[in-house]
Write a structure and sequence with these properties.
The complex is a heterodimer of chains A (about 160) and B (about 280). Chain A is α+β, with helices and mostly antiparallel strands and about 160 residues long. Chain A is about 35% helix and about 20% strand. Chain A has two domains: about 70 residues, Beta-grasp domain (Ubiquitin-like (UB roll)); about 70 residues, [2Fe-2S]-binding domain (DNA polymerase, domain 1, Orthogonal Bundle), CATH 1.10.150. In chain A, strand 2 and strand 3 form a beta hairpin. In chain A, helix 2 crosses helix 5. Chain A starts with a strand and ends with a helix. With about 280 residues, chain B is α+β, with helices and mostly antiparallel strands. Chain B has a five-stranded antiparallel sheet with strand order 4-5-10-6-7. Classes of the chains: A alpha+beta (about 160), B alpha+beta (about 280). Strand 1 of chain A pairs antiparallel with strand 1 of chain B.
């Protein structure tokens, strides 16, 4: 049994690096990433699991980092937006204006990246199902949708 | 940010988890079992729940099983809803839980968490209520297996310190004709105003409901009405609404009248789908 009773120095594997950080057990992963590790790409939006602005990848799956404790991420591989670089989905977001104010963008990008890695042949229903997890208050969904479909085609070599 | 501190434990056996729960409870730490954490983290942040100790049960192997035998499908209560959707062979359950929260949240939200949580809807229990599922519960005296009808009445009747460990669904029930209909206020990602889930077994409809009342339920009296072929679909739907086990919900999401209207429509659609006719 693992027991944690006080402030804890833990190692987290983030974007391929091991990062040491002191946490308390009630710290959410979002707060630790932003406030203790300087990884501010994940955004605090609703902090209620509704908006998806805090989305990160945990072992390749999108999760909302406001809804989990940092201590649960020990021994997992975390990917934040800072860990994505020069991917097709990022290029497509720029090309098709997949953002307006940009607050939701990192969450959308990570979710879309995971979607295309998991389901390269995703149909419209699958894309809709995955992307319903993120909200864009600027309502820039058209650009986001075009960007995802373009990145999907480029990855498939079409 | 959660504004208070708590201890965090991660036992790797159910015996250890149950023992620890009672020990922490005796120390007045108000322990909570924790699996996906979606509800506990958000409610702790809002100070709706206070706890001195979290017992994370995700490392208990029995809670993570997804296995199919000749006769049954065995689902660990710690499986996330997406793990079940991707790996289980019970289409009604998969279709019902696909409507809970959103895809990203379903990567954390667990079967046990949905059934045992504080939110009134507990939609994952609905398909189980229509079957002869068994619930495997770990407690101070070891494991016990109870039929879902025996242990679920508005909520799962767990004793203090007990853990829902597994659900076992007879395979024959997972292959039956089914229908479910869920109505929301606006978008699909929302709580249900009404959710009707039904299976047809040996020419009888078995149905469970949530959203309409403040708790999920299955009612023998309502099933008698649903299966009364002397009545038209419309007459049955009206009679069902008259026999609800409590007042219909009447809140900011929907009025009582609107919910009852949706309930009637959903019942008529259910009967059309499972009994046929126009």
């Amino acid at each position: 049994m693992k027991t944690y009773k006080d402030y804890e120095a833990i190692n987290l594997s983030i974007n391929g690096e091991t990062r040491k950080v002191i946490i308390k057990h009630s710290d959410t992963l979002l707060r630790v990433l932003r406030e203790k590790l300087g990884l501010t790409g994940g955004k605090p939006g609703c902090e209620n699991g509704d908006c998806g602005a805090c989305t990160i990848l945990l072992d390749g799956k999108p999760v909302k980092s406001c809804m989990m404790l940092a201590i649960e991420a020990i021994d997992k591989n975390i990917t934040t937006i800072e860990g994505l670089s020069n991917t097709e989905i990022q290029k497509a977001f720029v090309e098709y204006g997949g953002f307006q104010c940009g607050y939701c963008t990192s969450g959308f990008l990570l979710n879309a990246y995971a979607l295309l890695e998991t389901h390269p042949d995703a149909d419209d229903d699958t894309i809709k199902e995955w992307l319903q997890s993120n909200l864009c208050r600027c309502t820039g969904y058209e650009g986001i949708s075009k960007a995802i479909k373009t990145a999907q085609k480029k990855k498939a070599g079409i | 940010m959660i504004s208070y501190d708590f201890e965090y434990y991660r036992p790797d056996t159910y015996e250890g988890a149950v023992k620890l729960f009672h020990q922490l409870n005796n120390e007045s730490k108000n322990p909570l079992y924790y699996s996906g954490g979606t509800e506990i983290v958000t409610n702790a942040r809002k100070n709706v729940i206070k706890t001195g100790a979290i017992i994370d049960i995700k490392a208990i192997p029995e809670g993570n099983l997804l296995r199919e035998t000749e006769d049954a499908i065995l689902l660990g209560a710690n499986l996330t809803l997406n793990e079940i959707i991707e790996g289980s062979n019970f289409p009604l359950l998969n279709n019902v839980i696909r409507k809970i929260a959103d895809h990203t949240v379903r990567n954390r939200l667990t079967l046990g968490g949905n059934i045992c949580g504080r939110l009134a809807y507990r939609e994952a229990i609905l398909p189980l209520l229509t079957t002869e599922a068994k619930m495997v519960v770990a407690g101070e005296n070891g494991l016990k297996s109870m039929s879902v009808g025996e242990i679920f009445d508005k909520r799962l009747k767990l004793q203090k310190g007990e853990i829902l460990l597994q659900v076992e669904i007879p395979k024959k029930d997972t292959e039956l004709p089914y229908y479910h209909e869920r109505k929301e206020k606006q978008g699909e990602i929302d709580y249900p105003l009404v959710h009707v889930v039904a299976l047809k077994k040996e020419e009888r409809i078995k149905a469970a409901f949530t959203g309409i009342c403040a708790f999920p339920f299955r009612s023998p009296e309502i099933e008698e009405i649903l299966n009364d072929k002397n009545l038209s679909f419309e007459e049955r739907a009206k009679k069902v609404v008259d026999k609800l086990p409590s007042n219909s919900r009447d809140d900011v999401f929907a009025s009582k009248d609107f919910r009852e209207f949706l309930m009637e429509r959903s019942i008529i659609h259910t009967l059309k789908n499972l009994e046929g006719g126009i």
